[in-house]
Amino acid sequence: MMVPTMKKFMQLVAAFAVLPWFSSISALAEGFADVEKAWQKGQPVMIVITPDEQTPQETYGDWSYYLNEFEADDQADFISIFPISPKNAEAIPDGYNGEYSVLAFQKEGPAYFYEGPIVEPQVYEYLRVTFAREEVPAHIEPFAPEPVKIRFERGSLVVEDCTRKQ
Amino acid sequence: MAQLHRYGGYNLTSGDSDSDRRWGGARRTSAGNHVARLQTDLAELGTYSGNIDGEFGPKTGRSLRMFSWNAKSHSQRVANQSVVLDTHRFSGSLSSSLDALLCEEISRWLKSDFRTTGDLIRVQAADFANIELSSGFRVLSHKAVQQGEIVISLGFLESLKFADKTAGTLSVKVFLNQAFRVHGNAVSGAVVPPASKSQHLIGHAIDCNIVDGGSWNTSSDFRNGNETQGATQFIDAMTKHGLRWGGNFSRPDTPHFDKRVNPDSDDYDFKFAFNQLSISRSQPILLKK
Asked: Which of A89, B11, B193, B203 has its CA at a distance of 20 to 30 angstroms from the CA of residue B150?
C-alpha cells in the first residue's frame, strides 16, 4: 500500500482554499495529484484528519489501532488512505476538518463523511463493502457513515450538500 | 543468611561489580562472580536481557524489581511449556536490590523450573450468557488462542463477569470488538503511529457495543443523543463498579471500558512488559473457566 508521506501531503494541503457557495478543497498543490489520481482510477479514497496529540490516550489508541488494522487488511490496496494533520486541514470546510474526521469517496461511487474518531471496526467494514459494491450485512448497517456528495471539479475537490455544516 | 549463599552471601545492590570485587556495597578481598551469577539467573527467569557483565547497573536493578513484582503480583508461572499456578506467595518487597527473601525466592523458582510470565488468561465467549463477539472481533494471533476466545488480564476477569451479569439484568447484549491488544501490530504499514500506552495493551480494557433490542448504540448514536435507556443504565452500573467509560473522555470513545492501571506506574510498566512478552515469546496462556 502506498501511503503518501506527510511531506508530500503537506505540499498538497498547503495550497488548499475554500471556495464560496460550496465546500471544497482546492486541489492546486502538486501532491494532491495523488488523491485525484487514485480517484480518477476509480479507487476509493479516504482522507483522515490525524490529531495533533495522542490524547486522550485510550481514544487515540483505539482509533489508531482500528485504522492501522484496516490498512493492514487492505492488502490489495483497494482503498487509498491519506492522513492529514489538523494544521493542514484548515482548508477543508468547517464541519469536515475536525481532528479524526474522515472523508471517504469514490468516482461514480459512494461518498461518506464520518465525524470521528472511528473506534468501531464495523464503520471501516461498512466503507469497504459499499465501495466494493457488496451487500451491506444487516449488523453493519447501523454503523453507516453520513452520506455526502464529493467530486473533483476543475482541479478542486467539491463537497456538496454540506451547507448545514457551515 | 543461608539463602544469600547463592550470591556469596551478599545483599547485591546497585554499583556492585565482579571486576572490582565490590559486593553488598563494599570492597571485598575474595574473588567471585556473584553479580554475573545473579544476571544469569534473572536472564533464565526471563527478566534480564542485558549483557552478563558482572556489573550491577540499572538494567540489573530493574530486572530484579521486575522479578519481585512478578512474584508478588500473580501466581501464574511457566514450567515445562505449561502455565502452572504457584501456591506460594512471595512476601518480600518490590526491590531493585537483593535481600534474603528475594534470594530465597529466586532459588525456589529455579529449583521449580519456573519462568516469569504475564497474567493473561483466555476465556470463552460462550461461557458468558450476555457477551458475544462482534463481526469485527479479531481472535488474537497466538498458538494457544482458539476461535471464540477472549484474551484479558486476570485482573480484568471480574470486570468482564460484572459486565456480563449487568447486561443480563438489563436485558442488553455486549458485543465485543476487542480486548487485549498486541503492541505495535501493523506498525510496518501503519498509517499513524500506534499508541505507546493503553489499557488494552495490558488486558484491562474492552471495546464493545451495547446492543439493546434493535439498537447497537453506536458511537454515532451516542453523539446524536440516540442511545437507549438500557445502554445508559449499563454504563451507569459499570462506572459505579469502578470502571471507566470512554464516553466520558474529552474525546469520547463510547465503545471503551477499562479498569485503569496508572500508566505511569510500575504496575502498568511491568504488567505491560510481562503480558506483551508472553505473546512475543509464545508462552502458553491459561484457559480460565
From this structure: B193
